[in-house]
Specification:
By secondary structure, the protein is α/β, with parallel strands linked by helices. Helices cover about 50% and strands about 15% of the residues. Helix 5 packs parallel to helix 7, helix 7 packs parallel to helix 8 and helix 15 runs antiparallel to helix 18.
Amino acid sequence: MSVNQIHRLAVAPMMDWTDRHCRYLHRLLSRRALLYTEMVTAAAVVHGDRDRLLGHSPEEHPVALQLGGSEPALLAAAVRAALPFGYDEINLNVGCPSDRVQSGAFGACLMRDPALVAACVSAMIEAAEGRAEITVKCRIGVDEQEPEAALPAFVDTVAAAGVSRFAVHARKAWLEGLSPKENREVPPLDYPLVLRLKAARPDLTILLNGGIGSLDEAEAHLAAGFDGVMIGRAAYHDPAAILAPADRRLFGAAREIAPEEAARAMLPYIEAQLAAGERLNRVTRHMLTLFQGRPGARLWRRVLSERSHLPGAGPELVEEALGAIGPARDAA
């Protein structure tokens, strides 16, 4: 698979959602999509429990670590700490608008300081020593910035520091007055602006992010000239619709797995995680939407959500949930 193909589809980093259990499920559905961790702060990586924060399964590759931070030396230390874990990519978050991120002086507010971002990625690239690609995820601007000028200026400055791949959320972030949820929905999308950026910088790899809700839309954006698309909540809320057909439709692979197959393929993983001390509901919470829009989906969610947190709950509960939806599926 060529480099361009690898990045044709990515599942966006999503706080509290794209943990290692979620990524394992997503990898069962698509062998090709690029998966991202939740954002982890550079300080947490340097000073915290690295196995807990950075550990992942070999099956997850290609997989990227997303870091949050604004201190070049600290980000470089985090990259060095992450290298032994074997991530294919380490991404700097310049897009998250949450209050918690702003208070740490990183995330979307860094759009105002391209020179600082350039210093950060330069330090990260040096620390990576070619063992992981350093990339950036950003917005088209923040607050009073004019995206038509702010986005190209930001990208040119950061690209000059050595970054060649950007995932661009095609919305402004309003750091005052809008919640993180509103920042995902209220500011208007400007896909043409990001496409103009790609046309002006054909040497860069540009992934489009924001508001993409189906593979039909993804295919249209790829046909328009983007190198890749990054899908977030749609991939999480209906993974069988987005990820299961993706290898066939976007990568030309003769593979498509049914949600039932994916659920059964999770059973050995669940057994291993429970043996390591994990709780069943920490894994199955990501499986609740596996049958979204399909016969038996409500029964599936009910069995797992009502009982997966109980002491002693194990993989047999997943098998029971599969059995419960069988009659509904057969009757459809």
